[in-house]
Write a structure and sequence with these properties.
The complex is a heterodimer of chains A (94) and B (439). Chain A is mainly alpha-helical. Helix content of chain A is 35%, strand content 4%. Chain A has a domain of 39 residues: Orthogonal Bundle (Histone, subunit A), CATH 1.10.20. Chain A is built from three helices and two strands, in the order αααββ. The chains are: A mainly alpha (94), B alpha/beta (439). At the A-B interface, α1 and α2 of A face α7, α8, α9, α10 and α11 of B.
């Protein structure tokens, strides 16, 4: 299935959800599989787009690397669901 | 102040400076723009309790200009939607067309202006999210040239496409608000001073846009204006919309404008390429929401990946999950060239087409939306139908150009129809002048 770009199966949706770190309920997987088939089928139209030379008008934006005031530690921790000893607390690295 | 149509997520007042060009004026702010000390949810359960420790640059500029912010407006979750029905805080109803959606994703911002609950509002436009709700609610909305307005403090969805811009009852008021928020900001390296103001493209300095002035262009004078009408953006539209559009164009011709047809063959691929790019950028941008530094926690047991996936299952709604997954897919090994690289080709092609069309005409005009406002609930079950409603707005973001949506009239059923003018890069004054002939 993974080699067939024209169709997406539930296994592929499960795999991508894993890559994207989104836990999906079983019924979501069925619905998303159906919708993704529809959306990806329309994206197939991009095959007809010719290669185009890109004329990027870009300029680097530079500034001196100077220290300046930033947020205080307490402020950065304000929104964390859990903190410990002035640090963010995440899940255990098992 | 709560509204019957659910326009605000948080109705908490923020007072600005005592005087300034916006003293005594209320400016509602979309809830993906950071306000220090006032929660900023992005319409998502993920950020239900998130209170930013800093102000977005545009909020600082509003406060300095004397504006009062009456609240944070409801929106599609993380800006992902065309109807403002994907908000975790419930859908917004269109005050100008009860029973219908207000358009999205800045639906709350357009609704509070249409209802008169705020004088003006800020929205953000990634693929039409200012212009669509402006059109559906019968008000004015401007999507500025990429790089005119700082996004510092805007919660990112698709950085290469989005701009913050004004929503207002009239073009002149929208232009006044644009002047307040426009201009370089050293905290957003994509901003610059417009070339005609002496900007050399390398000025990321601390200019505050004080030199920029747009309102005087709103003089309604379209004598000699050469309007190009891209056939591709009119042919596909609903007849109820094109009828109002053609009447409005005829009115402009009566006032001295001339029109010509122009071709934009690349826009046939705009919606598809836009969604590939927007979803890809979204999948990367939204990786930051893991429930550790902010957001919905996934708990503290189990391994990192399972915990993050649990946080994101609880915090994100369906449309956000869809776009994050599809973006991840489009960027994954084996598909990058097929989707993402082709979408970038389409983007370059669209830019060339607009350059060519705008070398023949002063501005381009089309219906803002190919359809009138949908009924509430009508389009949610079918994502692709919703995406196709962005056919006329997404090409402008892909080309980095400025555009304005102005009310053009109503369908026979009384539904608002918007007309979109697109100008060359940094041509804000030109589209403001054209738009001011209508509103």
């Amino acid at each position: 299935m993974s080699d067939d770009a024209d169709a997406v199966g539930s296994e592929e949706v499960r795999h991508v959800a894993g890559l994207a770190r989104v836990d999906l309920a079983e019924e979501d997987i069925d619905r998303f599989t159906e919708q993704f088939a529809d959306i990806l089928a329309s994206f197939e139209a991009l095959d007809e787009v010719p290669e185009v030379d890109r004329e990027e008008d870009l300029a680097n934006v530079m500034r001196p690397d100077e220290t300046r005031e930033g947020l205080a530690r307490e402020e950065t921790l304000e929104n964390a669901p859990e903190t410990e000893d002035g640090c963010f607390k995440g899940p255990r690295v098992s | 102040m709560a509204t019957g149509y659910n326009g605000y997520v948080t109705a908490e007042r923020i007072e600005g400076a005592d005087d300034g060009p916006l003293a005594g004026v209320t400016v509602a702010v979309k809830d993906n723009i950071s306000t220090e000390g006032v929660r900023t949810t992005c319409g998502s359960a993920m950020l239900e309790d998130y209170v930013p420790p800093f102000d977005a640059t545009v909020v600082e500029r509003l406060e300095r200009a004397g504006a009062t912010i009456p609240g944070k407006t409801n929106m599609d979750e993380f800006g992902m939607g065309t109807t403002t029905e994907t908000s975790a805080f419930g859908p917004v109803e269109n005050p100008a067309a009860p029973g219908h959606v207000p358009g999205g994703s800045s639906g709350g911002s357009a609704a509070v202006v249409a209802a008169g609950d705020a004088d003006l509002a800020l929205g953000s436009d990634t693929g039409g999210s200012i212009r669509c709700p402006a059109a559906f609610c019968g008000v004015v909305g401007i999507k500025p040239t990429y790089g005119l307005v700082s996004r510092y403090g805007l919660v990112a969805y698709a950085n290469s496409l989005e701009q913050i811009g004004p929503i207002a009852p009239t073009v002149e008021e929208a232009a006044e608000l644009l002047a307040v928020i426009a201009g370089p900001d050293e905290r957003d390296a994509t901003t610059r001073m417009p070339p005609e103001q002496g900007g050399d493209g390398e000025d990321g300095g601390n200019g505050d846009g004080g030199d920029l002035e747009y309102a005087s262009a709103a003089d309604g004078d379209v004598t000699g204006l050469d309007i190009g009408i891209p056939t591709e953006l009119v042919e596909g539209a609903d007849e109820r919309v094109t009828e109002v559009f053609r009447d409005a164009i005829a009115g402009l011709e009566d006032r001295g404008a001339s029109t010509r047809e122009v071709e934009l063959p690349s826009v046939e691929y705009a919606v598809e390429s836009y969604y590939v790019i927007a979803m890809s950028e979204a999948s990367s941008n939204l990786a930051r929401f893991d429930g550790v530094r902010y957001g919905q926690s996934g708990g503290y047991d189990g391994n990192w990946n399972e915990t993050f996936a649990e946080s994101r299952r609880k915090g994100f709604g369906d449309e956000v999950k869809r776009r994050v997954l599809l973006g991840t897919y489009a960027l994954s090994a084996g598909y990058h060239d097929k989707y993402y690289a082709k979408a970038q080709d389409a983007r370059a092609w669209i830019q060339q087409d607009f350059d060519e069309a705008l070398s023949e005409a002063d501005v381009l005009a089309s219906p803002t939306m190919p359809v009138p406002p949908m009924e509430l609930g009508e389009s949610l079950s079918d994502p692709m139908t919703m995406y196709l409603a962005d056919a006329n707005t997404t090409p402008v973001n892909m080309a980095n150009l400025p555009a304005i949506s102005v009310p053009a009239g109503e369908t026979d059923e009384g539904l608002p129809v918007g007309l979109q003018f697109v100008g060359p890069a940094w041509g804000e004054r030109r589209i403001i002048r054209a738009g001011s002939a209508l509103a």
